[in-house]
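Second attempt. The first submission of 1,2-phenylacetyl-CoA epoxidase subunit A had a stray character pasted in from the spreadsheet, which I only caught after the job came back as garbage. Lesson logged: always re-copy from the clean sequence file. Corrected sequence (314 aa) follows.
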Amino acid sequence: MTGTLSEEDLETHFERTIARDQRIEPRDWVPEGYRKTMVRQIAQHAHSEIIGMQPEGAWITRAPSLRRKAILLAKVQDEAGHGLYLYSAAETLGADRADLTQKLIDGKQKYSSIFNYPTLSFADVGVIGWLVDGAAICNQVPLCRSSFGPYARAMIRICKEESFHQRQGYELLMTMMRGTPAQREMVQDAVNRWWWPSLMMFGPPDHDSPNTERSMAWKIKRHTNDELRQRFVDMSVPQAEALGVTLPDPDLKWNADRGHYDFGEIDWSELKRVISGDGPCNAERVERRRKAHEDGAWVREAAAAYAAKRRESA
Ligand SMILES: [Fe+2]
Ligand SMILES: [Fe+2]
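This time the job returned cleanly.
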């Protein structure tokens, strides 16, 4: 309860803030459903950034040159930073970071299904930058206008870094495509494996996306999954042509009436399988995260002891 305002007044104030396109800030009253949806979305996003360090992190020691290693290190470190901004944003809603991490490790909170696929060659680093970070940008640019202030502001900085991620990936692929036939084959093979999972990053189709309507009404989300997916396809086709790779979809063709590319049916059963824990690398990713968390326990204890000591002497 804030001052003498009734719950109804608070609700009206909240609805008006949303209607005026103003931001909801941490100290504002929000309906419980809004808070829960926001915490779930931000946590899932934060977990994706942290788990997303693994598939590419696996190639840091095997990068083909010092330059590629430096770029990849910087990129993977950026993802750690994204996770930290986002956990901080979730904390402004009263969530506890340790609790969120525990939920991830216990499989009670999800992360993006895309990170459950393996990285089989160095071309995957390029394709992840181009397609996975590219899809993330499509998703996240509209989130810079999300109604929750701390999330929207975190997204502005994250999007700037994501655009570097996408460009480093594309530049790497351009270099490989100018290389030997074997290198070009590696790129095509990576594109074949990542194209469809990248389309799945936008989530289930609109008719099967129960949270979309609510999130749109609260202006947490600004576009539907299918709208964003279409935008991504339209953006990627000319980029694939410039690169000289084929996107693995025989139904992909320009539709002049719609002013968009048509594309083939997505295998939604695969998405469901991977989300429910049965992707190629789910167990490995979570196990690795659990081990990193346990190995880091002494750091957290030392930091907490140091903070307590400082409080005492203050
Ligand atoms: Fe990121
Ligand atoms: Fe990224």
